[in-house]
Amino acid sequence: MSDSAPVIAVIGGTGDLGSAIARRLVKAGERVVIGSRDPVKAAEMASRMAGETGGRVASGGNVEAASQADIVILTVPFASQESTLRDIASGVVGKIVVDTTVPLVPPKVMRVQLPPEGSAAVRAQKILGEGVKVVSAFHNVAAHKLATDAAVDCDVLVFGDDKAARDSVVRLVAACGLRGLHAGVLANSAAAEALTSILIFVNKQYAVDGAGVRITGIKS
After folding, report:
1. DSSP class of residue 86?
2. Where are the beta strands (DSSP E) in 53-193?
3. What SS3 state is found at 155?
4. Sheet containing 57-61, strands listed edge to edge, beginning at the edge strand earlier in sequence
């Protein structure tokens, strides 16, 4: 691991998705900071992850973690998205923020319920402003599958208005052991966000353990 490599903060890193992404990144040799509303829980998760992987894992509160990082991955529930973004906003100016948020509204999580902005990702961009490059990804991957060392038969669609920022996130997806695919501008994130509710329905209807998406015809 090079000290010149970007530092990646995983906000909500003690949750299922956040910890799974962080663990895969650490195992790939990335420099990771676990962020949480509770710094004690973040430290406990970082210590456990370092013990499991042999890697170096830093930790802190959400604001502290975001401020330390070059790339910030947001992995919190939709209900916490806005408040968390506002908390870390001052620490992410000029950075890439990867928003994994899916607008699931319990109890009807199998029904598509996109926010008035059109998608959670567009909502994130409006909250953070033009000084932040928001990219969205990791919507359609089951967290419990990412949490293992097994290969995950799923592509990750990556959306963003800045191609270079998308490139950076595609690289992180690859570090997690999945194939990341450019899927266009940030507004297109609505398709992947909506698809999550459909996949939850498919899981229940066909007794699938974490259905995913695979794009055919691409030789890579």
Report:
1. H
2. 57-61, 71-74, 96-99, 133-136, 155-160, 179-182
3. strand
4. 57-61, 31-36, 7-11, 71-74, 96-99, 133-136, 155-160, 179-182
Name all domains of the chain by residue range, CATH numbers in brackets: 7-206 (3.40.50.720)
Collapse the DSSP code of 2 into the 3-class scheme (helix H, G, I; strand E, B; otherwise coil) and give the result: coil
Q: Give the DSSP H or E segment for 7.
A: strand 7-11
| Cβ–Cβ < 8 Å for 42, 61 | yes
Quick one: pLDDT at residue 1? 47
Q: State the SS3 of 9-70.
A: EEECCCCHHHHHHHHHHHHCCCEEEEEECCHHHHHHHHHHHHHHHCCCEEEEEHHHHHHHCC
H/E element holding 190? helix 189-206
Residue 219 contacts by C-beta under 8 Å, 6 or more apart in sequence? none
From 89, 82, 96, select the one nearest 172 (Cα to Cα): 96
Q: pLDDT of 83-101, one tens digit each?
A: 999 999 999 999 999 999 9
Query: Scanning the structure block, which residue is given the tokens 């992180």?
Result: 172
